Amino acid sequence: ILGDVGRTQRKYQGLVTQQSALWSIVGMIEDAESQREPEGGTAEPHLERGLALRGVSVEYDGNPVLRDVDVEMPVGSITALVGPSGAGKTTFVDLLTGLVQPSAGRVEVDGTPLPELDLRRWRGMIGYVLQELLLLNETVRMNVTLGDTEIDDAQVEQALRDAGAWEYVSRLEGGIDAPVGERGSLLSGGQRQRVAIARALLHRPQLLVLDEATAALDPENEAAVWDTVAKLRGRTTVVAISHQPSVVRVADRVYRVAGGTVQRLEAPQST
């Protein structure tokens, strides 16, 4: 009898543990469902005139992050967002990609409110380069194409040229099939960043977002990357986030993000 009681007790304890795990999973599912992003609209996105934020405010848990922001970014221009870390610069670009919804105001693409657009197609028109690079322990080609076998050599070369990377890649033993090493260890910091930019440019994005993309570079390599970005003017709309002032010299429009506000500053390439 004692053996039966012991087995029953162990089964009961196992059931209690499983029930606790079940409710934990249910809670996670409900939390994820509550944060499901909007489906978006059906309008075909076009970027021929520019982007705009109209009276946009954003709050997180009742705390204001951005307040009453009015910004215009003409097509083909380079817009720089400068300011201290945590000021709301990344939230600004998350608004452009539809990852964050404004609590007031609206985001427009060629005058169309973002919620009316097909978000999947809109995001397919955006290239994104982060500070934290993800380079595979593979070849240059693989890191640009991410294994897409439909991309040919000419397309890879063009993306590398647009990113200012072709000159050194063409000199590597193996060229685009040269290994980059673990996390790009066989390349310099500037070279790694240019390969990441080439990846973002491969599919000819209409909008290129650079989120602190040069933060880990020394001043010389940082200046070289911004010189490369400047050559995209007129072909690609660029929004560059940086807490370094060096981005200002290549920008058409410069906005300082601080204390929840966005203030336009003078830019050398003012438009």
Automatic annotation (TrEMBL):
Q: Does the keyword ATP-binding apply?
A: yes
Q: Which InterPro entries match?
A: AAA+_ATPase, ABC_transporter-like_ATP-bd, ABC_transporter-like_CS, P-loop_NTPase, Type_1_exporter
A Gene Ontology molecular function term of the record: ATP hydrolysis activity
Q: One of this protein's Pfam families, by short name?
A: ABC_tran
> Where is the ABC transporter domain positioned along the sequence?
51-271
User: Coiled-coil region(s) at which residues?
Assistant: none
Annotated keywords: ATP-binding, Nucleotide-binding
Q: Tell me the CDD domains matching this sequence.
A: ABCC_MRP_Like (cd03228)
Residue stretches spanning the membrane: none
Name of this protein: ABC transporter domain-containing protein
